Amino acid sequence: MVTTTDLQVQIFADGADIEGIRNLRSNPLIKGFTTNPTLMKQVGIKDYLNFSKEVIEVIDGLPISLEVFSDDFVEMRTQALKLSALGSNVNVKIPITNTKSEPSSKLVSELAKEGVSLNVTALFTLKQVDDTVAALQGSRKSYISVFAGRIADAGVDPMPIMEGALQLMRSEKQLELIWASPREVLNIVQADQIGCHVITVTHDLLKKLPGLGKDLTQFSLETVAMFANDARNAGYTL
């Protein structure tokens, strides 16, 4: 069985809880961080810029992906430049399209040529990966985030798409593939097996990571004990 010491894939913690981020910064398994407006809204973040600055200070040099939130490409560009200026470890997340389904490739290409490190996000198809690789040709180190977990939610096996993405990216060595939106610890193993560069993992899912490589017979016994204890504590009788 694979254990955490066997993993080659980089784990980026995905969240917006500043205390959680602070605690994870000292975990040697965590190689970077990502967040997004939805996660920030869930924990009640009101000031986007101040939160971004605080996170950058807390993570002390590790990579961090911060996302633009405008739906207009002109404003998106302005936000991207502001976020990029916050630190050399910032990767600016640009969605693959806006809400009108207009592709962001032109903006991605422009920002890449200006030296902005990017994380192009919310990709689901190999066509989107191919277009993004073309837009990032010759860029600084950047990331492409394919939402494998959501692909699986649609009843589609994400593995061929992730493997295909790696093939499409092989000519641009500065690009790294992110397995985004994992649903279970198994996804970390799958990402590692195919040579995916990075997987983003929520703080809640990271709590399950110590179980990686656990002996299944022992795990079975612990599960039986849990059921027995819960039934006893509930006072059930028949």
Would you spell out the secondary-structure blueprint of this structure?
Layout: E1 10-14, H1 18-24, E2 30-34, H2 37-42, H3 48-59, E3 64-67, H4 73-84, E4 90-95, H5 105-113, E5 118-123, H6 126-135, E6 142-146, H7 148-153, H8 159-169, E7 175-179, H9 185-193, E8 198-202, H10 203-206, H11 216-234
Parallel strand pairs: 1-2, 1-8, 2-3, 3-4, 4-5, 5-6, 6-7, 7-8
Helix pairs in contact: 5-6, 6-8
Could you characterize the architecture of this molecule?
The protein has one domain: Alpha-Beta Barrel (TIM Barrel). The mean pLDDT is 97. The chain is of the alpha/beta class and 238 residues long. Strand 1 (10-14), helix 1 (18-24) and strand 2 form a beta-alpha-beta unit. The chain has helices spanning 18-24, 37-42, 48-59, 73-84, 105-113, 126-135, 148-153, 159-169, 185-193, 203-206, 216-234; strands spanning 10-14, 30-34, 64-67, 90-95, 118-123, 142-146, 175-179, 198-202.
Keywords for this entry:
alpha/beta
Q: Quick gist of this model?
A:
The chain is an alpha/beta fold and 238 residues long. 44% of the residues lie in helices and 17% in strands.
Distance between the termini: 40 Å
Which segments are poorly predicted (pLDDT under 50) over 5 or more consecutive residues? Answer: none
Q: Tell me, what is the CATH class?
A: Alpha Beta
Q: Which fold does the CATH topology refer to?
A: TIM Barrel
Q: Name the beta content range.
A: 15-25%
What's the number of structural domains?
1
The side-by-side strand order for the widest beta sheet comes to: 1-2-3-4-5-6-7-8
- The whole-angstrom Rg is 20 Å
Q: Based on Cα principal axes, name the global outline.
A: globular
Sheet with the most strands?
Answer: 8 strands, parallel, barrel
Q: Count the helices. How many?
A: 11
Helix content: 40-55%
- CATH architecture group name: Alpha-Beta Barrel
**Taking all residues together, what is the mean pLDDT?**
97
Number of strands: 8
- CATH superfamily caption: Aldolase class I
The arrangement of helices and strands along the chain is EHEHHEHEHEHEHHEHEHH
Q: What structural category do the secondary elements indicate?
A: alpha/beta
